TrEMBL record:
It comes from Paenarthrobacter nitroguajacolicus (Arthrobacter nitroguajacolicus). This is Bifunctional protein FolD. Keywords: Amino-acid biosynthesis, Histidine biosynthesis, Hydrolase, Methionine biosynthesis, Multifunctional enzyme, NADP, One-carbon metabolism, Oxidoreductase, Purine biosynthesis. InterPro entries: Aminoacid_DH-like_N_sf, NAD(P)-bd_dom_sf, THF_DH/CycHdrlase, THF_DH/CycHdrlase_cat_dom, THF_DH/CycHdrlase_NAD-bd_dom. HAMAP family: THF_DHG_CYH (MF_01576).
Length: 297
């Protein structure tokens, strides 16, 4: 049996440390009479989405952020959903909010995200904030960043992993992870070289073998095997799938086969890696936005 070589990028412990720091910053805001408030909009009763939203409210309570919850039926019309978006845009207790994704198929996600007040967009997914991410090559402009990409960069930074000059392969071109993470990693402050692979990529195995860093965000269970990787690669397993464990129970499974730990130098596991960082970065976005509104940051 081979010995696992990879060091673990522990998202749970890192997120816990970030939450402790945010608790201090929320107390400083409270001393100035400012209480940040996060709103969530959940449409339907998908078990995963319901769990994530519940976790966001629990996190808020932990760090002292007020939370506002709007749980809506699966068959809500787009117009009625827009009405809830407008209500949170105007709600003074809500300093930022998110619309939990994915939305049901009959709702146009782009229309909903665009209707949000960009200054209250805690997920950084409003087209204005995605545009700011594109324009912000130096990383100096302050705007909310999508939580999972921000979590990946913060997880690496807090483990002193420098990506300057590294060849990074991102697998998956989704709007919440794949596309924005390339923009973050190519900022001058990170200076990585990024290749964005997707279902149309001709020779994924060749790209994987050359990558110093792999960020797997395809949502295909265990599609990346140990033998696909360059020895010593840094691997972030970000994709989430729920598969039957053989006993009728759904378990969270990442894109990377656990045996990759025998080849990689660093591995962020799934669960326990980037997921907890996504939650912590949402809190960070809410606190940063409240600080900006208070003229602190
Ligand atoms: N509006 C948004 N929708 C979605 C986002 C997002 O950032 N904004 N990301 C994902 C879901 N997500 C947060 O919303 C999320 C995913 C995973 C985790 C997490 O902590 N996962 C755990 C495992 C959880 C489990 O057992 O199910 C882990 O990785 O350890 C938190 C948040 C899609 N939608």
């Amino acid at each position: 049996m081979t010995q696992s070589t990879a060091q673990i990028l522990d998202g749970k412990a890192t997120a816990a440390a970030i939450k402790a720091e945010l608790t201090t910053r929320v107390s400083a805001l409270a001393a100035k009479g400012i209480v940040p408030g996060l709103g969530t909009i959940l449409v339907g009763s998908d078990p995963g989405s319901t769990w994530y939203v519940g976790g966001k409210h629990k996190d808020c309570a932990e760090v002292g952020i007020q939370s506002i919850r709007r749980d809506l039926p699966e068959d809500i019309s787009q117009e009625d959903l827009l009405e809830v978006v407008r209500e949170l845009n105007d709600n003074p207790e809500c300093t930022g909010y998110i619309v939990q994704l994915p939305l049901p198929k009959h709702i146009d996600q782009d229309v909903i995200l665009e209707a949000m007040d960009p200054d209250k967009d805690a997920d950084g997914l409003h087209p204005m904030n995605l545009g700011r991410l594109v324009a912000n090559v130096n990383g100096e402009m302050k705007s909310p960043l999508p939580c999972t990409p921000k979590g990946c960069v913060e997880l690496l930074r807090r483990h002193d992993i420098d990506l300057k000059g590294k060849r990074v392969l991102v697998v998956g071109r989704g709007v919440t992870i794949g596309r924005p993470i390339g923009l973050l990693l190519t900022r001058k402050e990170v200076n990585a070289t990024v290749i964005l692979a997707h279902t149309g990529t001709v020779d994924l195995p060749a790209e994987l073998k050359e990558a110093d860093v792999v960020i797997a965000a395809a949502g295909v269970p265990h599609m990346i095997k140990a033998e696909d990787l360059k020895p010593g690669a840094i691997v972030l397993d970000v994709g989430v799938s729920r598969v039957d464990d053989g006993n009728g129970k759904a378990v969270v499974t990442g894109d990377v086969d656990p045996a990759a730990a025998d080849v990689a130098a660093w591995l962020s596991p799934n669960p326990g890696g980037v997921g907890p960082m996504t939650r912590a970065m949402l809190l960070a976005n809410v606190v940063e936005s409240a600080e900006r509104q208070a003229g602190i940051a």
